[in-house]
């Protein structure tokens, strides 16, 4: 099931990211944030359509804080090709039919704060940060504070390694594209919220290409012969990248932080117990909303 994901750049390291879904603004956490020398338009806004930055080696630099443009695929991975074109194994077809009406959504691992797995984690419209080192690439996700490490030093996955929710990832460079192969899954994750199953034979290939300063494309191929008869072929989704108005976002974050966490004199007099109760209530509301969305 090939799939192309569109991502927009929220902030380029070392600039502190203005994460659009965080309750607190980055500016409230850091002072004297250095300028990243981002390309600018005549009006001073970041030019997201500018050519991608390059490292001293000449290769495109993928580093930065990224966020998907479209989160519809976290619910339905086959949104573009249609369910009739998904090459299920018979047992996987039956299991999906049982899950797709949402009555089993509480069984979705991420409903229990368990890892969402790959590639599902990448469809979530929450920011994640990509960091390169000489021997690896690290992805830090705001979602459940998950992380991935992708080794680029030539190692291979031990076939006897303990199966894992996120599998084991290795990467190689194909020109300016990072090709990531992940295997060694435990077969417990769902491919999407509708409940398409996986097995421990799942193998995911991701191709990360930074097309512009503010855009990244990730082509995903899913191959799980335990649950599907073929990897499948479908036209990739072409997703545009939304422009990020950093100043407007920053102001919005400050207002959100003030309303949610600043409180007033009456609330401050309520003491710590009242604030903890309020925050806990918000978390329960978020959990209920998340559960109902599955």
Characterize the biggest β-sheet. Answer: 9 strands, mixed, barrel
Backbone structural class:
alpha+beta
The H-and-E topology, N to C, reads as: EEHEEEEEEEHHH
- Average pLDDT figure: 75
Distance between the termini: 21 Å
Strand content: 15-25%
Overall outline:
globular
Low-confidence stretches: 11-28, 233-294
Radius of gyration: 21 Å
Total count of helical runs of at least 4 residues: 4
Q: Level of helix content?
A: 10-25%
For the secondary structure, the number of strands is 9
How many domains comprise the coordinates?
A: 1
Largest sheet: spatial strand order: 1-2-3-4-5-6-7-8-9
What does this structure look like?
With 294 residues, this protein is an alpha+beta fold. The protein has one domain (3-223). The chain has four helices and nine strands. It has helices spanning 90-99, 246-262, 265-269, 271-293, and strands spanning 3-11, 64-68, 128-133, 136-141, 147-151, 168-174, 177-183, 203-212, 215-223. A nine-stranded mixed β-barrel has the order 1-2-3-4-5-6-7-8-9. Residues 11-28 and 233-294 have low confidence and may be disordered.
Question: In a nutshell, what does this entry contain?
Answer:
This protein is of the alpha+beta class.
